[in-house]
């Protein structure tokens, strides 16, 4: 038996292809991102080592601060909208309303759409002349009109909302699964003690979901900081630079201007930013693990 | 939850809220399908919100025949199918070796691969583009298939690992007694057992590769190799005079994923929640 499950040749055959591919395509590039961020590099030649100059330049770039701010706005909107709405809907659906299966499927459908389709749809809906949203105001008899995407103040919010809308269903599904896994007797005990339903959820269910909330928050915030496709498709970073994010800055630097080293520095900064956020969330939420 | 409590607290207001959000969630998609069957005049002026008055299927004919939709569709199918096969084969074998076989570094190997779940595509885009160029994969199907497989390995290995751990060891023991080789045991005994997990991952990997946008944007520039998410990007400009056809193209692109999800909704959601539970 030992020999059977310890078959060296079989282990190699089973693990090597996956390990090799993963190492070359996923793991090695992340090291390269850090290494190349210390070079002035056009992506073709060897480049020259300039140590931290790319980072110094990054910190002096006004677009960097716009990008940083936008990433945080994006993350905050995703976290509030997705987790807020997701929580309310998950608790309600867990009650077992009539048609809860249809509800679940409806909430999740935007998740399976291509981001291009979703962005094109919302581009049409946001359009100032014939867009659906302004048409709704018109139909309601309100004379309010807004150029959602061409106004540099509203653009980033409008884009972030699209992403929040599309992936809310994902967070909802995670939260619903977690809510359903909370043992009933805890809530029953609270009920016997005379707690209202709302209070019981607040004091019992939500704390028990701490691990899930941690995961959802990390997902929303890193998703926001890394946002790229939405602005690429909807505004191209504009108007002006008002909808740049760090990933967009990286994309522009590397693939449009040919400054691969500078782009790598932006990417490396992003990795560090996401790491800090993840660690902070882990530290702040549920220091003591709740055991059943 | 407790039955009596449930009944008394079934708040009608909450019910309305649930259905209103369902409407917000689905209506944009319905609106797209509606306008794929309308002409410009109906979309903009006479009937922007509701059902089409008569169905203009010629929009679908236009989208399919005048633009590159069939080519994009074929590319998406090819890339997604190859990605699904590659990912499943590599991650089933890998996670089997890690979960069931006995070797010293198995835990290290498992964690090493799980880390990949935390690496966003965006931050390795630059080195990845260079790698694909250096391997002379640029502007071939492999430019997408290889990275898609590599990126899906982490998640699906983790899901398979969870399944493998729940199978009793006696299976291999008895196979070993009967004199079967490890390969034979794996193929004829283990694989059939984890079929449900494989079905789940097939759906999941298909959805993610069908819709992938960022890598496709960086790694594919040749028109004839573009996948649907990339091809659709340039429709806005091309179709300014024919919105109905654009809606039709977008509907065609969405149909496979929406169908797969509606048919297999439980498996899709299960796959994702397994991920979060293991991670937590």
Detailed description of the structure:
Chain A is built from 14 helices and two strands, in the order ααββαααααααααααα. Chain A has helices at residues 2-5, 8-36, 53-60, 62-94, 100-108, 115-126, 132-139, 155-180, 184-192, 197-208, 210-225, 229-234, 246-256, 260-284, and strands at residues 39-40, 48-49. In chain A, helix 5 runs antiparallel to helix 8. The radius of gyration of chain A is 24 Å and the shape is globular. The model of chain A has no long low-confidence stretch (mean pLDDT 89). With 280 residues, chain B is mainly α. Chain B has 16 helices and no strands. Chain B has helices at 3-8, 12-35, 40-46, 58-66, 69-100, 106-114, 125-134, 142-165, 170-177, 182-193, 195-211, 214-219, 228-233, 235-238, 243-263, 265-279. In chain B, helix 2 packs across helix 15 (243-263) and helix 8 crosses helix 16. The longest helix of chain B is centred in the N-terminal third of the chain and has 32 residues, at 69-100.
Short note summarizing the structure:
With 292 residues, chain A is an all-alpha fold. Chain A contains 14 helices and two strands, in the order H-H-E-E-H-H-H-H-H-H-H-H-H-H-H-H.
The oligomeric state of the chains shown is heterodimer
Low-confidence stretches of chain A: none
Q: Which protein chains are joined by the largest interface, and how many residues does each one contribute?
A: A-B, 101 and 100 residues
Helix content of chain B: over 70%
The helix content of chain A, as a percent range, equals over 70%
The secondary-structure element order of chain B is HHHHHHHHHHHHHHHH
Name the overall outline of chain A: globular
Shape of chain B: globular
- Report how far apart the termini of chain B are: 24 Å
The spatial strand order of the largest sheet of chain A comes to: 1-2
Give the total of beta strands of chain A: 2
Q: Mind summarizing the main beta sheet of chain B?
A: none
**Count of alpha/pi helices of chain B:** 16
